Amino acid sequence: MTRINNTAILTCILIFIALIFLLRLRNRYVSEDAGDSEGYNGIPINDDLAPPRPPILYTVEKFGEEGSQRSYAIQTEMHADQYCIGYKFLEATETFREADNLEPVTLATHATSDMIDAIENMSSLWDGPISIGIFVDYHSSNVLEYLAELYRCDIRFRRKMTVHFAFRRSPFQTTCPLFELPQSNRTCPEFFASHDILRSAIVGPFQLYPSNLMRNIARKGALSDIQFIMDGDMIPSEGFAIKIKPIANEVIDGKSKKVLAIRRFETKTGNEIPRDHRKLLKSKKAHETFEFHHRFFSQGHHIENLDDWFRTSIHTEIISTSEVAYPGYLWEVQTILHRNDPYNADYFPSRIKVMHSLIYALCRAGYTFHVPTHVFDVHEGIKHTNTIYSKATIAHQEAYAMKIAGDRYIQEMNELYPDTLQKCGEFSMI
């Protein structure tokens, strides 16, 4: 009997050690695990050791007084009997609707709490409205308190950022709760003085990440109708939001079945990230910047006629578009589209064909893809292979979720759009 008890105790200890190891392994690789070719998105990816980032420049002193201190109470809502969603936890104060009467382009993105560095930098990279869906769990929910303080103390963040959140409900939870966040008694100088300590206490959720759901939350909660779906670890070209607005209003209206497909690149870690097309071409010629995932999954991101795109962008200041053909179900380009256009299949398994589900649905629905000149985005770091954590997650999802989701999706596409199968080809989860 003693031997059995000792064996049981030893087994429990080994399981505990294994869980701790997996958690640390996950935290080690979590910053390398997003934006990849199979839609493994949500967390920045970097195959090389990244140099220290420049300090984030807050705008509380430069632009005016801090926001008012307040408490928050948001009734979360159930989705698919699995998730609780809190829309507009923080809402941007600026509409970006100017005298030109053009609809602003919202950067619709998603993240986990351990992407706090990228989240804080977004407002300095995008000169327009931003809508972000953040996935949390019990251990990582303190990121919401941190963002509420940032919203109050950084006027640039407050002007641009609309923040939503979601979490997976517990097995025996029948309703979604009222989320309450008490008023902070910190002053903004106190918040910035304790900034590093507060950030170090933020951890990522140790759960399967529903990237498609978070993309959809960002789109549904956006404050404008035209939306650019971009992963949170990408760096948009300079002036993107302003440059794209006229052509986006011309092409996208929620009726014409046209979307803009945005070129995506990756650059070697430690190099200057090119943010205009001339620097991009120079970096490409120096073999420092490449089309996104050119080594890992080029067929998912390649957009034809790149040389013509550079030539047009350099020889004229006027942004134009050219239509490109849909190359097949492996394509997962980033798009600018309308609120009324199709959404990602939010029931897709984590890291398996997640972004493909939207692009294929657009093709089946009769949409055409148009590539604008001048604007693009860049990822720091070049992906060569999946991390151990990615491979483990994919193996789990392939075993338990892939077939069910794939069968459901293919049936939906064939029922909704029976006349476009030949045009777009068969879809496959493999």
Automatic annotation (TrEMBL):
Pfam families: Glyco_transf_49. The chain crosses the membrane at residues 6-23. Keywords: Membrane, Transmembrane, Transmembrane helix. It comes from the Eukaryota. This is Uncharacterized protein. It comes from Caenorhabditis brenneri (Nematode worm).
